[in-house]
Specification:
2 domains; single chain; Cytidine Deaminase, domain 2; alpha+beta; disordered N terminus; elongated; 6-stranded mixed sheet
Length: about 375
Amino acid sequence: MQTTTLRVSEPQEILALVPHRLGFRPRDSAVAVSLRPPRGEVGLVVRVDLPHLADVADGPLLARTLVAHLGRDQARRGILVLYTDRDPRGGDGAAQLAARHVREAAADALGDVPVWVVTPAGYLSLDCVEDCCPPGGRPLRDLDSTQVGATLVLAGSAVAESREDIARIRPQNGDVRRSVARVRRRWEHQCEEALVAGEDAVSRWREDSLAAWRKAVAIVEAGEPGPGGAPWGRIEAGLADRRVRDGVLVALVPGTSDLPERCVRTVPSTPEVDAALGAAMALILDPNRGVVPPERATAVHEAVLEAVVARGRAGAQAPALTLLALLSWWRGDGARARLLLDGALDADADYHLAELLDDALMAAIPPGWVRHAD
């Protein structure tokens, strides 16, 4: 993964970078930025709601949590960026309280924390007098013309207008969804017949469901998904089966070869399969063996899962949304993972894999490669 090395003397560059790191333009938010030694390289960028950080009772604890995250990122210094509706200088509002809580929490570990404010009209230093930053701040267009901002835009980095937009999956038109629904119903019926026929038939159905996933990956790699119902309906029906879903999960991990197919078979797992499955999951979870998800393959997998959600039944996509959330978490995009996971739990509040991932997000546990890198 690429990193951008910035000097602390260039706050405009950091302000231009933050929305690209988050993937959206923050509103009513506080963003803590880790600056790593020796040259102030930008590390962790973490966002919280500004009212929560400003809360008199809970704000100091949240501030200490933010500082602890920066400490685990090996920060020597930090910057706080507040996104609010108006210039907060001269008042004792939420922005001032949030800044005070962070500065008090960071005093011993990070020293003085510069606080910058971004409003819909401009940007400014919270401590700046009018000679430095005019009322309302300096114009936002200055941030668009920074070297970092221009470089990221030229590299294809896009910023969503809101946090909700980064996880919004627009449904396909009615004809496409009806075509997928017909395939899904036929595949669900074949599953019912396989359950009556016995384990061998169930095993074949599961392997065929996984084959549909492989076909969809090939389709997306070759271009945009077409309008037909196959293989999307088979994938939607297959993901409702835990064994198929786990096979797809394993297929998201690089170097697993035919392990997904071996995982979906009905016969009891062998010690070799169990060991291979554990090794595959360690590449996502283990702090000693975790790897960065492969960029191209992960983008394809996300596109396949988004196609399943866009073509499937509204409000019934817990498996696909959970796998999407897992991929986002693995990439280090906690904001998107949170929103996708909320969608999965809205669809099925008792979906076990979603609950496990929710625990990891609530505990702020990063994927294995992040802890390995530290």
